[in-house]
Structure formats: C-alpha cells, structure tokens
Input
Amino acid sequence: AALGVPAGTPARSSCKQELADRPRRNRRSEVFRDAIRETAPVKPANLIYPLFVFDDVVEPDTEREIASMPGVRRHTVEEVVAEVGEAIAVGVKQCVVFPKTPDSLKTRLGEECFNKQGLAQRTIRALKEAYGDEVYVHTDVALDPYNTDGHDGIVDDKIGRVLNDETVEMLCKQAVSQAEAGCDCVAPSDMMDGRIGAIRQALDEAGYEHVSIMSYCAKYASAFYGPFRDALDSAPSAGGAERKVPKDKKTYQMDPGNFREALRELEADEAEGADVVMVKPGMPYLDVIRLLRDNTALPVAAYHVSGEYAMTKAAAMNGWVDERAVVMEALTCFKRSGADLILTYYAKQAAQWIKEDNEA
Ligand code: PBG
Output
C-alpha cells in the first residue's frame, strides 16, 4: 500500500520472472511508441468522400436526412459543391458521387445513366467548374440507381436473371458519359464479368484514355449496404407475379465466405486494365484487403460502407463508444491491412479531427 500497490499484490521479489524478452519495454514511453509505430497515421489525402445527390427540381420533397445514416445528407448539386469545398479545405480532395434518380426517370433498362443532362453528369460538371484539378472526382458505374428493379444490371424478368453482356454495354455508355462530363476516375461497382476491359476500351475509343478506372474488385453480397440503399431508394424490387426479379445480388456480388475467389477477380481486373482495385465492405474484410495488397502492385482501396458508418454512429449516439477514437482507429487499421485509399462517410470529419490533432 505504501507504494500505491493494491493490497494482496505479491511482493515483487516473490513473483519475479526471468524474462529476457519483455515486449512492454518498447511500449513504455509515448516518445518511443511514436518512433516505432509501423503504420503511418492516415492522411486526409488518403480519403475519398462519398456524397449523395438528389434533384431538387424534379423531387423537391426529398428528405435531406437519411434516417439510417445520421449526420449524412442528400445534397442538391449546389450543396454538394459547397460540401466538397469544405472537404478540400481540410485536405480531402477526392469524392465519389452517388445520384438519387427521381422515380419518374427510372426505367427497366436504366437509360438515364448516360443522359448528358443527368444528375451525376451535372454534378461532375459543377464540381469541375468550381474546383478544376483541385478535386479528383470518382463516379459510380452501375445501373441500380437508374433501373426500376434496383439491380446493378438489366434484369431478364422471364427467367429472373441479371444479364451480363447486355449490362456491360450500358455501363460502357454510362462511363463514357461520365468521362465526357469531366470525371477523373470511373468506379464500376456492378460486378459484371468483363466490364473493366469493356469500359477501358470504350473510354479509349471515345478519347478518354486519361480517365482512370477504380474497380470494385472484391465486392461482396453484403447486408452492410442497407443504409446506402435507403439513401438512394435503390434496394432490389420484389418483382411480382408476372415478373421474376432476383431479391438479392448474390448472383453477381461475391459470397462473404469466399477468400481465394478475390484473387480470381483481381487477376481479371489487372488484365483488363484497372488502375485501382477496391475491397468492399471494409472492416469485416480486412483479410481480403491484405490479400490484394500482397498480390498486386496496383493501389488498393477499401470502402468503409454505409452499414459500418451506421453502426459506429448508433453506438456513438448512445454514448457506448468514443466516436472519434473508434473512427481514427478503424482508419489506421485499414492502412495497416494494406489500403492506400479509404472511402468513408467520415472523410470530412476525420480530416477535421486530424487537423485539430496537428494543431494541438
Ligand atoms: C451500387 C452500390 C452500392 C454501394 C456502392 N455502390 C450498393 C449495392 O451494391 O447494393 C454501397 C455503398 C455503401 O453501402 O456505403 N452499385
């Protein structure tokens, strides 16, 4: 007790171990912990900010708030430009745009995806007009925000199948129209076979060989996307008696139990010309991030998805976790597992925290 040792603690001399190796020695001092830390802290430059945009002219009554993602909003084009400006000010210079297509513009094939005056295309142009090369704009290539079935591809409703090659043709048109609007990188999130090669060829033929492709390479059929589908109102539709529509995305997105299969996707994407390969979701799939990191020279991205955001936020709002600490820890763990880039709804907030830390 004299030494501040709790009563009942054995005397030091009686419990002494003969240990040559004591890992705790290297953890004793803050100075030294900092000196030997294996993973450099995340920089705002590593972060990509996903943003939801809606059309306030066609759908003026759209709720800004997303119930399952407190703190994340749907933006008008004008608001998205302001939000990206705030992100750039704290060092987050990359964003990815997700349009909420008005119901009146959704069709079976999703042709709105390559409309030059479409919401995504208008947003890209507005961002580039405002910030030019100060911002690096990624876009989502997939049909689910555009088709009435809520699938990433075209549904053949007689046999209940998502068609591959027909879908890829649409995705090529979508990617070219996004490139034409001025995006820096197209990010196909659809998981159709052969789409990276086809999109690469379509971009090149249209004169956009400088536009990059970030492939959603190992994208899993995950329940963690729920809040995202709320945000865009893009969940797979139920179909009905006359129309067969698959109720989930398991025939194109990967099975959560699979690991080796990610290498097969990686090989295809590399051969087809991907510039960046992504793993999605993030935290439950750190092993897959590490697998890609160890098997490619390409940059690897991780998507800290909507459900991960929602879980973190819910716990934080209840006072059950320290939000700032768990978010910064998660970002460090993405880097440790091998991610160069992290897509996260916390991008702007994390960069603000990093700035505060640096100024302290
Ligand atoms: C659509 C797409 C999804 C996400 C990004 N692009 C949803 C899905 O595949 O159903 C999910 C992102 C998130 O949950 O944050 N192709």
